[in-house]
Amino acid sequence: MAHQHHSATEEQDHDQEQAQEYEHEHDHKQITDSDGVTVESALVGDGLELSYPASEETIVDCARLDIPEAAVTALVGPNGSGKSTLLKSLSNHLEPDAGTVQIHGEDLDSFSQKELARELGVLSQENDSLGSITVEDLVYHGRYPHRGFFDSVSEEDHRAVNRAIELAGIDHICDTELGQLSGGQKQLAWIAMVLAQDTDVLLLDEPTTFLDIHHQFRVLETIRQLNEQKGVTVAVILHDISQAARFADYLVAIRDGELYDWGPPEEVVTEQLLADVFGVEATVKYEPELQVLPKQALPDNRL
Question: Where is the ABC transporter domain (predicted)?
C-alpha cells in the first residue's frame, strides 16, 4: 500500500510539473497570423503584479499579456479571476506593484490623463450615476480629450457624437435623462460616450451586462463593425464563453489571477479549459462553427 501511495504522490508531482510547464509556455507564447508573421500588439502588460491598496494580497500575477493590434480580444474567466483588475491596469486606473503596461510601445505613465484618453476609450462597470443629465450630453462628454478648456464644440465633435449615438442605436432616447432609463439603455448610453471618444483602442468591461439578447448582439456587432471598418483594437471582458468564442479574434483565459492560455478561439476553447477554468463539463464542437455545449458543473473541490 505504501508503495502505491508513493506512486500516487509522484504522479501528482509530475502532473503539477506538467501544468506549470504548460502555464509557463502559454505565458510567453507569441501568436502568428496565417502567413506565419508574429502578430503585433497594441497593448502589452509585462511582468504584471496587481493588488488593491486595501489588501496585501496579489490578485493578478501575469508574466505577459498581449492585446493584438486591430483585432478583438475577449478576456474570459470565472468571477473573481482578475479580469477587471487586469483591465484597470491596462487603462492606467490601477498602478501595478510590479511590471509595466505599454500602448503602441510607450509606457502608459508617459501620457497625461487627457493624452491617454485620446488613445484609449474605457467602459468600466463603475459608472458615475448622473441622473439629471441627458443621453446626448453624456455622449458629448466623450469629446473632452479633443478640446481645449475654452474651446466650443466643433463640427467634428457633432459628427462624432451623432455617429456614436447612431452606432449604439439610441437616437430615440438622446433627449431623455439618464435617471429615467432602464439598466440596458443606460449601458448603451455609456457605450455611446466611449465611442464618441473616437480612440484607436477600446477597453470594455462586460459591456453586455444588463442587456437583453437583442441589445447584447447590437453591442457586439457595433464593436465588430468599428474593428472591421476602422481597425479599432478592442479588449472586452465577456461573461459568456460561447459568445466570446464566436465574436472575438483572440481569447485570453484567466484563472486565479494568472494567464491560463491565449490565442485564437478554436485553439483556446477546449473541454480541458472549460473544466480547468470554468469548472464545467462540456462538449466543444468545431464544425460548422465553434460551439460550447455545457453538460454539468464539476465538484467545487476538484482543484
Answer: 43-281
